[in-house]
Amino acid sequence: SGTAKVILNVFGYLSHFDAYVIHGPASLEQNIKIFDELTLAKINLASGQEIDLSDTQKITDLKGFADFYRLKTGSLYGAAMATAAHLGSEEPAKVDVYREAGNNLGISFQFDDDILDWGGDQDKVKKTLVLDNRRKTPFDIATPKEIFTIGEVYAERARELLGNTGKNVIYVKRLMSEMKRAFNSKMLPRKLAELK
After folding, report:
1. What is the mean pLDDT of the chain?
2. What span, in angstroms and rounded, lies between the C-alpha atoms of 60 and 81?
3. How far apart are the C-alpha atoms of 23 and 6, rounded to whole Å?
4. In terms of Cα–Cα distance, which of 172, 150, 175 is closest to 163?
5. Cα(147)–Cα(119) distance, rounded to whole angstroms?
6. Residues contacting residue 83 through CB under 8 Å, at least 6 positions apart
7. Cα–Cα distances in Å, from 142 out to 44, 124, 150, 156?
8. Whole-structure pTM value
């Protein structure tokens, strides 16, 4: 079935991360926690891909798209940040905060990607920019400004969560600023003006 193929592809795609964990510098306890993170990310990503292929018509609001994006990109960003926290021997509550920050960053990225499909400069984005007419997109239920705004809300949530870790997360915050700068530079100026 299509679902089985999606799941197999996702697990195959992420299997190289498993190999890194086995051969990486982590302790056995850290490896087990990281495997758990990667397993959860694989399951969530497969679920998100299944929705992407068949069920986006059922999404009725931007929160529904955010939940969908949490499964896809959010789960990968969340697993990456939680893995870093495990490698840093953070306590479980802090690992949860890093995971949630990553989830929010992934959701924000996905909404930004939708906006780029709508108003990006194809020469600068380096991908074909089209709104997918085979499935429902956020543009079927909201304006570009509303989509941009909700992406900003999730980015701010990620920043707040990172600020609450008590750690120097300047590199992650710089990455977030660079992502926003790159986003702005790839937008067509007239379309960017519509979002402000």
Report:
1. 82
2. 30
3. 27
4. 172
5. 12
6. 34, 37, 38
7. 25, 25, 10, 20
8. 0.83
User: Token pair of 50, please?
Assistant: 């299944």
For residue range 177-195, list pLDDT tens digits in order. Answer: 887 888 888 878 878 888 8
Phi then psi dihedrals of residue 130, to 5 deg: -145, 145
The answer to whether 82 and 98 have CB atoms below 8 angstroms apart is yes
What are 117's two structure tokens?
Answer: 């499909």
Rounded Cα–Cα distance for residues 185 and 80 (Å):
26
Q: Which of 138, 156, 155 is nearest to 147 (CA)?
A: 138
Q: Nearest Cα to 148, choosing from 190, 183, 102, 186?
A: 183
The count of residues in the chain is 196
* pLDDT tens-digit readout, 155-171: 999 988 988 777 767 77
The token pair that represents 13 in the structure block: 């795609």
pLDDT of 132 reads 62
DSSP string, the chain: -HHHHHHHHHHHHHHHHHHHHHHSS--HHHHHHHHHHHHHHHHHHHHHHHHHHHTGGG--SHHHHHHHHIIIIIHHHHHHHHHHHHHTT--HHHHHHHHHHHHHHHHHHHHHHHHHHHHB-HHHHTS-----TTS--GGGTS-HHHHHHHHHHHHHHHHHHHHTT-S--HHHHHHHHHHHHHHHHHB-HHHHHHH-
